[in-house]
Write a structure and sequence with these properties.
Radius of gyration: 15 Å
Mean pLDDT: 90
Oligomer: single chain
CATH class: Alpha Beta
Distance between the termini: 24 Å
Number of domains: 1
Largest sheet: 7 strands, mixed
Strand order of the largest sheet: 3-2-1-4-5-7-6
Order of helices and strands: HHEHEHEEHEHEE
Structural class: alpha/beta
CATH superfamily: Vaccinia Virus protein VP39
Helix content: 25-40%
CATH topology: Rossmann fold
Low-confidence stretches: none
Strand content: 15-25%
Shape: globular
Length: 179
């Protein structure tokens, strides 16, 4: 992990507040998440979970037989997910503090790995994508979006990293399978 990957505590608080306002004004997350292919019983990794705005939806979709790992490099993200876990009774959610890009999760365990609104900020895309590939099942899926960069840049960076094959593209996100 490069020094620029982890935002300051003030920036994290500001980002979380902006997301809260967006979620109140524009209730679109449930519809968006419904397109990710998460089903009951799946193991999902919300990599770069931030304050857990998607984690709650993943938990509901994975159900009691599923498991959601909310992974982030920021301690405040882990605290936020723990608060949501308690508030909403998310028994299938486990917050995980990553060290650099290493999540510490077992290899080949995730049915779906998501990286939503973070890829543009990742300093070492190859190392990041290698970790996501490591934790994905051989038949798993990576759901990733552009965040604040052009789609062509996202696709080029993922292609350069190898390990992933694009199989679905929407206006909102890209889906990859392990190569």
């Amino acid at each position: 992990m490069k020094k620029g990957d982890r935002m300051s505590n003030t920036s994290f608080r500001l980002m979380a507040a902006i997301m809260d306002v967006q979620d109140i004004l524009f209730s679109h997350l449930e519809k968006r998440v419904s397109q990710f292919g998460i089903r009951s019983g799946m193991t999902v990794v919300d990599y770069g979970c931030g304050p857990g705005r998607y984690t709650v939806f993943y938990s509901r979709l994975a159900g009691a037989r599923g498991k959601v790992y909310a992974v982030d490099i920021h301690e405040m993200a882990i605290r936020s997910v723990n608060q949501k876990k308690e508030k909403y009774g998310l028994l299938n959610v486990e917050p995980v503090l990553a060290h650099g890009y290493a999540s510490g999760l077992p290899a080949g365990m995730a049915d779906v790995v998501t990286a939503i609104d973070i890829f543009f900020a990742v300093q070492d895309q190859k190392a990041f994508l290698a970790e996501l590939r490591r934790i994905a099942r051989p038949d798993g899926i990576l759901v990733i979006d552009d965040g604040h960069q052009a789609r062509r840049a996202t696709k080029a960076q993922i292609a350069a990293a190898t390990g992933w094959t694009l199989f679905e593209e929407s206006r909102d996100h890209l889906k990859y399978k392990p190569a």
